[in-house]
Automatic annotation (TrEMBL), chain A:
GO biological processes: chemotaxis; signal transduction
Domain of life: Bacteria
Protein name: Chemotaxis protein CheW
TM stretches of this protein: none
Xref: SUPFAM superfamilies: CheW-like
Gene3D superfamilies recorded: CheA-289, Domain 4 (2.40.50.180), SH3 Domains (2.30.30.40)
Domain CheW-like, residue spans: 1-140
One Pfam short name: CheW
GO-annotated cellular components: cytosol
Automatic annotation (TrEMBL), chain B:
GO MF entries: transmembrane signaling receptor activity
PROSITE patterns in alphabetical order: CHEMOTAXIS_TRANSDUC_2
This protein's name: Methyl-accepting chemotaxis sensory transducer
SMART domains in alphabetical order: MA
GO biological process: chemotaxis; signal transduction
Keywords: Coiled coil, Membrane, Transducer, Transmembrane, Transmembrane helix
Keyword Cytoplasm applies: no
Coiled coil (UniProt feature): 392-419
UniProt cross-references to InterPro entries, sorted A to Z: Chemotax_Me-accpt_rcpt (IPR004090), MCPsignal_dom (IPR004089)
UniProt organism field: Liquorilactobacillus ghanensis DSM 18630
Signal peptide per UniProt: none
Classification lineage: Bacteria, Bacillati, Bacillota, Bacilli, Lactobacillales
């Protein structure tokens, strides 16, 4: 049993392993980027890093997440990559059981790229997001590049010491 | 012999003895006045003889004269007597014969002449009487005509008087009727007068009630004004309360924010604790508790917010209701003011009404007085008509009497006419 951060998007429970999550912040103020897909809301500056923010609902279900008091941004870190997920609500940090549902879905050829595992939270089924899908997105290559450029220009202007990825 | 005595008796004029009587009386006076007082018997005796002789001589003379006169006038007297008879029969023309008679006796001539003179005078009288009788006849005819005309006129007057009497009696009846009508009218006027008095009383009561009404309405208006002030005060206080509630809401919002921040902090603390591994386990429990507390306080803040929202909603409704009430009270105030104005107008109208009633009253008083005068006049008219009626009746009676008198007069005139006829006839019997 591992610890997960459980959250909601498109009225569906999702989970991320707690060790991947660096911080949860409450904001909707992002720096907009040109020539990026519409699910990229912009970048957010956190601890000397420019972190791209993705609207999870837009990416997975094609609809923008409406901004409320409960909307939060989950800042994640995996293999020296940073990413922010704009989600509807944080449910909590819990220990979740694993299931074998994803194997049945694979047999039925319904498993999508973002589904990592199916987890059990109380009576609810929670989808554990597949981190490869989130971080190894080819479509976001240009995004990564532009983020890198942005960081460089910021280094030059701010004259602050930075870590390189 | 007897026949002779009779003729003598006839012929003898007893009037010749009157001087003898006178002589006897003178002798008696002389005897009693002159001879007897002397008392001489011789003288008495001589006077007695003288008296007897004188009386005898006188008697004889008288007898002689009588016989002498009868003998001398015999045939002439007879002629005279014939003429006299003719004349006495009305044939005055016979008197003409007297002038042809030749009479020697101067006494008879004198008598004849005197008689002729008398006859002539008588003729003249008869002629005059004839004329007069003709005039009298004519006059009596005229009188008859005039009388008959007068009678018919008086008859007309009688009819007219009867008509007048009828009219007078009908007028008297009408005047009586008018008098009764006037009395009735007077009674009605009195009733109207009484009714107007009552109306005046009602109007006065109405005025007083209206004044009371006005006063009450003013009182109501004042209370209403106070009520409105209170209402506006309540609205103001409600608005203040709303603001306070909003302030509370802001505070609660702040609390909510704090609880959310706390929640976030607790979440991040939990993440940090998880990343710390076993070392962070205790901290993770604390962070979880903090998170529970933050959620609880957030929930409470939400509840409070809902309650405040409900309160705000209710207070808004109350303010709306109060505002509605205030605006309707404004309308009511206006209505009340209108009612007060109307009441004032009613007061004015009632005042004018009372004035009009007073005027009517004074008029009716005048009418009442005049009614008495008119009733008096009608009474006097009735009285006059009654008097006139009585006078007319008297006049009718007088005319009736006059009519009867006239009838009598007519009769008399007829008699006069008849008498005149007779008179004429008698006069015409004389032959001149």
């Amino acid at each position: 049993m591992d610890q997960y951060v459980v959250f909601k998007s498109h009225d569906q429970f999702f989970a991320l392993p707690v060790l991947l999550v660096k911080r949860i912040v409450e904001t909707d103020q992002f720096i907009s980027l040109p020539d990026v897909p519409d699910f990229v809301l912009g970048v957010f500056e956190h601890q000397q890093h420019m972190i791209p923010i993705i609207d999870l609902r837009r990416k997975l279900f094609g609809e923008f997440t409406p901004t409320t008091d409960a909307t939060k941004v989950i800042l994640c870190e995996w293999q020296d990559q940073h990413l922010g997920l704009f989600i509807e609500n944080i449910v909590g940090i819990n220990y979740l059981e694993e299931t074998n549902y994803e194997a049945e879905l694979s047999q039925a050829d319904l498993k999508r790229g973002y589904i990592g595992k199916f987890l059990k939270f109380k009576d609810q089924v929670v989808i554990s997001l597949k981190l490869d899908y989130l971080f190894d997105n080819n479509q976001s290559q240009a995004l990564t590049d532009s983020v890198a450029e942005l960081e460089k220009s910021k280094e030059g202007a701010g004259d602050t010491p930075t870590e390189t990825d | 012999m007897a026949k002779k005595n009779t003729s003598f008796g006839k012929k003898f004029k007893w009037g010749l003895l009157i001087p003898v009587g006178i002589t006897i009386v003178v002798l008696l006076i002389c005897y009693f006045a002159v001879i007897k007082p002397v008392g001489n018997t011789g003288l008495n005796h001589s006077f007695e003889i003288f008296s007897i002789v004188l009386i005898i001589i006188h008697l004889l003379f008288a007898l002689f004269v009588t016989s002498k006169a009868g003998q001398s006038t015999g045939p002439e007297m007879q002629q005279m007597m014939r003429v006299f008879d003719q004349v006495s029969n009305g044939d005055l023309a016979g008197a003409e014969e007297l002038s042809q008679l030749k009479i020697k006796n101067p006494i008879i001539v004198k008598i004849k002449n005197s008689f002729q003179t008398i006859i002539n005078v008588f003729k003249a009288v008869i002629v005059g009487m004839k004329d007069e009788s003709q005039r009298l006849g004519k006059m009596s005819q005229d009188l008859t005509k005039t009388t008959s005309k007068t009678k018919s006129s008086v008859g007309n007057i009688k009819d007219t008087m009867s008509t007048i009497a009828d009219s007078a009696s009908s007028q008297a009846a009408e005047a009586e009727q008018t008098s009764n009508d006037m009395k009735e009218l007077g009674g009605k006027i009195e009733k109207i007068h009484a009714e107007i008095e009552r109306m005046n009383g009602y109007a006065d009561t109405s005025r007083q009630s209206n004044q009371k009404n006005s006063k009450l309405m003013v009182d109501v208006s004042q209370s209403w004004q106070t009520e409105r002030d209170n209402q506006s005060q309540i609205v103001k206080e409600m608005n203040d309360m709303n603001k306070n509630v909003q302030s509370i809401g802001k505070i609660v919002h702040l609390i909510n924010d704090i609880s959310e921040q706390t929640n976030l902090l607790a979440l991040n603390a939990s993440i940090e604790a998880a990343r710390a591994g076993d070392a962070g386990k205790g901290f993770a429990i604390v962070a979880e508790e903090i998170r529970d507390l933050a959620e609880q306080s957030g929930q409470s803040a939400k509840n409070i917010t809902e309650i405040i929202e409900a309160i705000r909603h209710q207070s808004e409704q109350m303010v709306t209701a109060l505002n509605d009430s205030y605006s309707s009270s404004e309308k009511q105030t206006e209505t009340l003011n209108n009612a007060i104005d109307s009441s004032k107008e009613v007061s004015e109208i009632v005042k004018k009404f009372v004035e009009s009633i007073e005027t009517v009253k004074s008029h009716i008083n005048g009418i009442s007085k005049e009614k008495d005068l008119v009733a008096k006049s009608v009474n006097s008219i009735s009285h006059s008509i009654t008097e006139t009626s009585a006078g007319t009746e008297e006049a009718t009676a007088s005319i009736e009497e006059l009519y009867q008198g006239l009838e009598q007069f007519e009769k008399n005139v007829k008699e006069i006419s008849k008498s005149a006829e007779i008179f004429k006839f008698q006069v015409e019997n004389f032959k001149i």
